[in-house]
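Predict the holo structure. Ligand: NAP.
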Amino acid sequence: MKEHPRNRFDLTGKTAIVTGAGRGLGQAFAAGLAEAGANIVLVTNRTSAVETKAMVEAFGRKAHIVQVDVADRSKLPSIIDEAVETFGGLDILVNNAGIIRRAPAAEHAYSDWQEVLDVNLNSVFVLCQTAGKLMIEQGSGKIINIASVLSFQGGINVPGYTASKHAMAGLTKALANEWASKGVQVNAIAPGYMSTDNTEALRNDPVRNRQILDRIPAGRWGTDADLIGPAIFLASGASDYMNGHILCVDGGWMNR
Ligand code: NAP
């Protein structure tokens, strides 16, 4: 072994973009990467990211808020430009923004299908492509796509969401194959059932809540804190030989 860095997980001096950073899991990703040393570009749409900014700054890092609807693909390159202008570069991209629309497949509105694909998949391709070009040029970079256990399973009443998350897993592998030799690692985290707004309807349904809990070996819903370690790992030099991996953080759900 040639090198023994003091902390393989250190992100000091790195710049990260986190989409959907105003609330939910994105807020935790932003704060977690800041805890490990990174300055963060907080991408938000309807939610104010002021609270997340304060969390990042409490770790002594800098935060810059960008308000963008990621479904508007013409606006996406400006996010990468702002990161470079504000912090002088880009090292980490976390594609976290996502939506879910619940309705049985036979009645699923096409507009819901389209909206989910625009937010969860199409924006991710454009952001990966734009960030990837810059990262290839500099010979380094980390992209973390936030997938789902529905990247592997069908789910119920969420056909658009499931399609988007399966496609995201495929995209992660496709980009990893092309960019691994260029120093850019593209991986994904597949959270299991986490307690956020996204899953509130499930937790409020006593039958579904019980069914879900009965299947999780860990016996509880996940929390945003459960995802911070895996995110720091995939953003840091500790994962330099990981490419196209979909890392399940699911309390054991996928083993059942
Ligand atoms: P959430 O609490 O519902 O938050 C969704 C986030 O996405 C918000 O920050 C929201 O920002 C952002 N967003 C939605 N539409 C957007 C748009 N058009 N433009 C920009 N940002 C947009 O969801 P979450 O549970 O934190 O989920 C975060 C990610 O994890 C998603 O990709 C989700 O699929 C994935 N995931 C979640 C779970 C879970 O159990 N919670 C499990 C597996 C995967 P605004 O508020 O500003 O609109």
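The chain has one domain: 5-248. The domain at 5-248 is CATH 3.40.50.720 (Rossmann fold).
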